[in-house]
Specification:
The structure holds two protein chains of two kinds. By secondary structure, chain A is an alpha/beta fold. Helices cover 30% and strands 15% of the residues of chain A. In chain A, the strands form five sheets. A three-stranded mixed β-sheet of chain A has the order 10-2-11. A two-stranded parallel ribbon of chain A has the order 1-8. In chain A, strands 3-4 form a two-stranded antiparallel sheet. The N and C termini of chain A lie far apart (99 Å). By secondary structure, chain B is mainly α. Classes of the chains: A alpha/beta, B mainly alpha.
């Protein structure tokens, strides 16, 4: 009887061991060391300096292999005493979309299938600014500007009170001390709740592996900004975090041929953006939603 | 030592008997299970393709970023919540005919929750990072994100709806009376949790100021009302199947009572819809756009219009059928009403609720979304999974309920004694 019990117990134990091994072994053995590391990678804000260094080294090696180029991946933190604000002069915008393409180029966006843009220029019939339902997103005339239309560029408004951050179930997106809303692309689970929550369509999703050929890449990147992304992660405009923290203008500001786009530090009383807020009649999109955007539209004439 | 051995022996007996129960059945049972397995495998193969290429394999885009998966999720949460409609009269008011079938209703709720969770899983872009959401291990954004709330309440509800029926079934297996002091608190807790899962799911949409179609306080009550229609409707059908294929007796009286409750719930559902209709059309602000897209078409885009009017027609017809006692108490019209409600509420609460939230999008763009083959097949796969789980639950639960499958010491008796 005792023998019989022993075998039965052994049988049950072996059976459950076999089941557990059967499930987990193929999973583990099919993973490379790198895949395991990726899988267990921590949230960016919880990494130690040492861990950050390792992750950056790993990424640089991977990018070198993929694009054949040496990347400079920055993790530079916010410069103290800065809060970035944007100004956009609607009377100057001619709807040429140079900003749109300069942005995609600077930020290593997926080029086709899907083509991801962080700036969207809406064409509106003169007479209304609010009637977005009658806006045209895919206008394609031979020449811009067109007489009867005006153009409204929209991108992430870097809200002080962002709806996207509130809804993220895993803290994968947050507001930096300089007011920039960023994403840890390695922490995002791809649920797209933030896309549903954003009133400005400020976020896009990598529906497929991003398409970016080696001759198109920008190798000067920030970990929380324009480093090449991966499949099924959400991404967005960061006012070019990689540029503005080193004292440069965002790519869209530089690309604009008409001086429509202004940029500066809201905490600096002598900045261009403060000058605009004080002297022009500025407004923000959908102010009724209380998102407090740091993106000011105004009219020169 | 002896008692330990007995427990082991009994567990082994239960395990073996359950396996043999699950693997033995008539031709119809085998055909049904193989049919479901085939759909599951097909769905899984399509999912592998989606996993490989990314969500670009679906018809979702940055404009309509949730589609058929989340629509099914929303509907199934309602289905699961509806088990409460059976729990209340059964345990609180001791309504005998329903009391006998409530365990089956709870197992149905558990199956629905499994399906709902699977629909969220296939919608997630990065399944490998799902552990980021686990409290303490990952970094769950609780209490800010409603999605975090949803994960907690859905798993809690799943736990309750497995614990309660399993406990009751095990006591029946031992032919003992349940220890009500132990299980009743869980049963009572399951009632607010059922309301909770649906309220939280409604709030998940409700809290988005960017989406005027969802940003209406009437959402949670409407969700509850429609859930209390569709869940019980499918139960009425399932109970008729159960009494046909097993020795369990389910009285017509119980079915008619459930239908009566559905009629009240449907009245509330239609009333709340009417209230929304009035507000949108009388005030006629720009926020009416998604409403118009759904009910009459917007700028020539009328894809959803035939669907929603079919749904409304079905719901109203079912309401009338269930309101009139003579049609409610005839099985043919009762079943017709149930089918109408299951389909009607699915359209209204699923695609008819999720898609217009995204059309037009916050910058006024209209993107016409219709699910593609991959989304359909993955969805069918998940439905088949849920049905198979429910079938296997029933395969074990029904013999226990009927007193045919019980503890070893009762096995020698030839005829099963009456239950309780």
């Amino acid at each position: 009887m005792a023998d019989k019990r022993y075998t039965r117990r052994q049988f049950i134990r072996n059976l459950s061991l076999a089941a557990a091994a059967g499930v987990s072994l193929p999973l583990f053995s099919s993973c490379t060391k790198e895949e395991k590391e990726d899988f267990l990678q921590k949230h960016f804000k919880e990494m130690t300096t040492e861990e950050k260094k390792n992750v950056i080294a790993k990424l640089e090696a991977r990018y070198l292999q993929k694009y054949g180029k040496k990347f400079q991946i920055s993790t530079q933190e916010a410069v103290s005493g800065t809060l970035w604000g944007y100004g956009l002069d609607l009377s100057r915008c001619i709807g040429c979309r140079r900003c749109v393409y300069a942005c995609a180029k600077e930020n290593n966006n997926s080029r086709r299938h899907p083509q991801l843009h962080w700036i969207r220029v809406l064409r509106l019939k003169k007479g209304s600014l609010i009637d977005l339902e009658n806006s045209e997103h895919y206008y394609n005339p031979p020449v811009v500007p067109e007489k009867e239309y005006l153009y409204l560029p929209v991108q992430c408004q870097q809200c002080e009170n962002p709806a996207c951050i509130k809804v993220c179930p895993v803290h994968a997106t947050w507001k930096e001390p300089d007011g920039l809303v960023v994403v840890d692309y390695n922490w995002c689970i791809g649920c797209r709740y933030c896309i549903a929550a954003c009133p400005y369509k400020g976020r896009v999703f990598n529906w497929a592996d991003p398409t970016l050929s080696p001759d198109e890449v920008n190798t000067s990147v920030h970990y929380l900004g324009n480093r090449p992304r991966m499949k099924s992660s959400v991404e967005k405009c960061t006012y070019c975090v990689q540029r503005v923290r080193t004292g440069r203008y965002p790519a869209c500001v530089e690309a604009c041929p008409t001086g429509t786009r202004k940029f500066g530090n809201l905490l600096d009383p002598n900045s261009e953006i403060r000058y605009i807020i004080e002297r022009k009649r500025v407004f923000r999109l959908k102010e009724d939603l209380n998102t407090e955007p740091k993106f000011y539209y105004f009219f020169e004439a | 030592m002896d008692s330990c051995r007995d427990v082991l022996k009994e567990t082994w007996h239960f395990y073996r008997k359950t396996l043999s129960l699950v693997f033995s059945g008539g031709k119809a049972y085998y055909l049904w299970c193989i049919f479901l397995l085939c759909i599951m495998i097909t769905g899984f193969l399509f999912y592998l393709k989606q996993h490989d290429v990314g969500l670009i394999g679906t018809n979702m885009t940055d404009q309509v970023s949730w589609g058929l998966y989340i629509a099914n999720f929303t509907y199934l949460v309602g289905m699961a919540a509806a088990a409460v409609l059976l729990v209340i009269p059964a345990y609180i008011y001791q309504f005998k005919p329903i009391k006998e079938i409530v365990v089956l209703g709870e197992l149905f709720a558990a199956s629905s929750i499994v399906m709902a969770i699977l629909f969220v899983m296939v919608d997630l872009g990065r399944l490998d990072r799902v552990w980021h959401m686990i409290p303490f291990i990952g970094s769950m954004n609780f209490p800010q994100s409603l999605l975090a709330w949803d994960v907690l309440v859905l798993n809690g509800y799943l736990f309750l709806n497995v614990l309660i029926p399993v406990y009751l079934l095990v006591t029946f297996y031992y032919r003992k009376t349940p220890n009500w002091k132990f299980i009743l608190p869980f049963i009572l807790l399951s009632i607010p949790t059922a309301v909770g899962i649906h309220t939280v799911t409604a709030f998940l949409y409700n809290g988005l100021a960017a989406r005027p179609f969802w940003n209406a306080s009437i959402l949670a009550p409407r969700f509850l009302a429609s859930a209390l229609c569709s869940g019980p409707a499918i139960m009425i059908i399932i109970f008729q199947v159960i009494r046909k294929v097993s020795v369990i007796e389910i009285e017509d009286k119980a079915l008619f009572k459930i239908a009566e409750l559905i009629a009240y719930a449907m009245f509330l559902n239609l009333f709340l819809l009417a209230a929304e209709f009035f507000k949108e059309y009388y005030s006629n602000t720009v926020h009416i756009a998604p409403f118009k897209y759904l009910f009459e078409g917007l700028h020539g885009h009328t894809q959803l219009v035939p669907w929603i009017w079919t749904a409304l027609t079905m719901n109203v017809t079912a309401f009338i059928l269930f309101l009139i006692p003579s049609t409610r108490k005839r099985l043919s019209t009762l079943n017709l009403g149930c089918v109408f409600i299951i389909i009607g509420v699915w359209i209204e609460k699923g695609p008819g609720f999720v898609i217009p939230g995204f059309v037009p999008d916050p910058l006024g763009e209209i993107y016409v979304y219709m699910p593609n083959l991959l989304e359909l097949m993955v969805s069918f796969g998940i439905w088949a999974t849920g049905l198979l789980i429910f079938t296997l639950f029933m395969k074990v639960a029904l013999p226990i309920e009927a007193g045919v499958f019980s503890h070893t010491e009762y096995q020698k008796e030839t005829a099963p004694p009456p239950r309780h």
